[in-house]
Amino acid sequence: MGPMPFFIILVLSGIGCVGAWAWRNWQVVKIGPVKTTPAMAWAVMRSGRRQAWLERRLEEVEDMERGARGAALNELLERCDDLEEEAATKIMERLMEERRDREALARMARTVRNSDGRLAFLLARILAQKREAAADGEVAEILRESLARALPRLEASDHEARAVALALFTLNKARAWEVIRPLMAPGRPAFGALLELVQREDRAPEEALIREWLRVEAARRIDSGRSASADEVRLLALLAKTRREEAQMRLQEIMRLPDFPATMAAEALIELHDLPHPRGSLMDWVDEDGLECLSPDEATTYLADRCSYYVAHQLADTLLEDSGAELPQMRDALLRVGAPGGAELIEKIIAVLPPGGLPKDKDERLAYLRGEGHELEHVVFRLMHDHDYRREEIHLLALRHAVEHRAGFRRV
Predict the structure, then answer these.
(1) What is the CA radius of gyration of the chain?
(2) Which of the four, 285, 288, 334, 410, has the lowest number of CB atoms within 10 Å?
(3) Would you kindly state where each structural domain of the chain is located, as residue ranges?
(4) Which SS3 state, helix, strand or coil, does residue 89 take?
């Protein structure tokens, strides 16, 4: 092989290496500390430029006359795309402030109505903060009509459907049901979310309709092999408004199950019997007057539920700081509600405390934990992390104790 072919091969190899390097760096671009692809980098830069342009335009709009201001804001809103949620929110907030300009507001409503539902969700979030819009009947009707048209397009998202439905209740409670009712049927995507909202808004459907939904839900439950469902619990809570004893019997059956709907059923029964909730009134009473102000049954439910909260979030520090002086009572409460696994954990924690336990005075207890006992939090955290809880649903057991021992509870 002569020198010329060798030289050509050498040049081609060099070009190949440079090309491979360039291709590698074209595939992965660094923006600050983040590696990304050129397409993603271009999208980020384009979004940044668009955002800066919108911010400049919003500043320019401030200097315009009222009528021109509304038109300019609507033009900006119509140009927003999926990357500009924050900008769209700002524009609609400004248009809400200009609500005396009915023409601008109506144009915004048309844009919201014709969008894919995203703008309706953003508008609903604004209305959750600016409820004064509902006080103006004409404004409320303009906005209500656009949200009503958009709601069916949001059915696949519980979060978005609930937000828009809540806005409809805020704008016109009487007419909200007209919009929501056609979307409510067991099996439809947003049924549970809308049902929860109707229950919270104290807007009980007719008893015949609730019974029909319960029948359909029971058939779906049997087909899927489930013992109960969250939607069935919500429907029973609504039925209890007119058929208390009947609903109560089924809720008690569900409460005795070991899975998720049982906790919901217990919550519904606590509300039905006007009992103080361990994370509501019971907690408030203890904060104000100490654990001594509770009856024995109230204290049992409260302490068992506190343990369930600490364990669920692995809050070793909070357990020691807030309940460190009450660990023996917490252990006994866990045994009473039927949680021996939880009681065993608390016994392990008591065993690593200093002789005589932690100081009863909270300030003294905090001083000890931040000083001499500063390593105790880590030790308790490891005990929590490594413990075998035997799949106990301590929160459910605490709520169940409240329902079954309600004679020992005050009413709220």
Answers:
(1) 30
(2) 288
(3) 68-176, 204-272, 281-408
(4) helix
